[in-house]
Predict the 3D structure of the following.
Amino acid sequence: MTRKAIALITIVILAGLLCTAGCTTEQPGAVVSTGDNTTPVAAETSLLVYAGAGLKKPMTDIGETFTAKSGIGVDYTFAGSGTLITQMDLSRKGDAFIPGGTPDYRIAQDKELVGEPGYVAYHVPVIVVQKGNPQNITSVDDFTRAGLKLALGGADTTAIGRAGDKLFQKHGILDDVEKNVVLRAPTINEVVVAMNMGTADAALITLDQVNPKTMDTIDLPQEDGLTLIVPIGATAFTTQPDAARQFVEFVTSDEGKAIFAKHGFPTYPDPAYAGIKP
């Protein structure tokens, strides 16, 4: 055998040994053992969750906690519920949907975008006014007063906007209220900003969004029926049904609900809202 042939065989053998030593692949969700402890390795699985903009704070916390526990990543698209439904309908991608209330979830169900929901918390609408209530507003009927500046959520894009218009129609004041609207926002977050900046005299937002430093609140009568239940469910087109189910179960668990409570949401079920049905 020539020296050249011997050298070539040696190189091939060394390459094989190096690959055996260093070319191993960890499986997604594998567990590394370290003495008496086991630590989950970050999984390659990642969920795409469509979430209402008003749920950003609790859902961000939930995503971080869920990932730490399960090793499953969570990516969010936050927007108004109407926008999210359109995105889901067009893309047919994603794994879970959590809007601000059950009316929007039912729209997604009617389009066969999502399965049966679980329930998490309550979105409780309230009237907010500037600190000290300089306009002396006492109810939504005062929203018709000439010269008042109102900030409201979009009726086609937000759960709070849709609920508000339903209330104004019930009171027979929708057209007069609309004359005073200076902002119809695509998400509830812009309504909150308008109140914080003082560019609106009053608004409808949910209890969890109230900034007590800049706003006073006026409760709405329960008989107006504006309180919304926050639902969550897996999409009909998820390619990761087991991971999506785990996420939905975590959000609706006692631990998930406790995170919502930390951010000012009453959690489902609550006897105070026994008359509110999904």
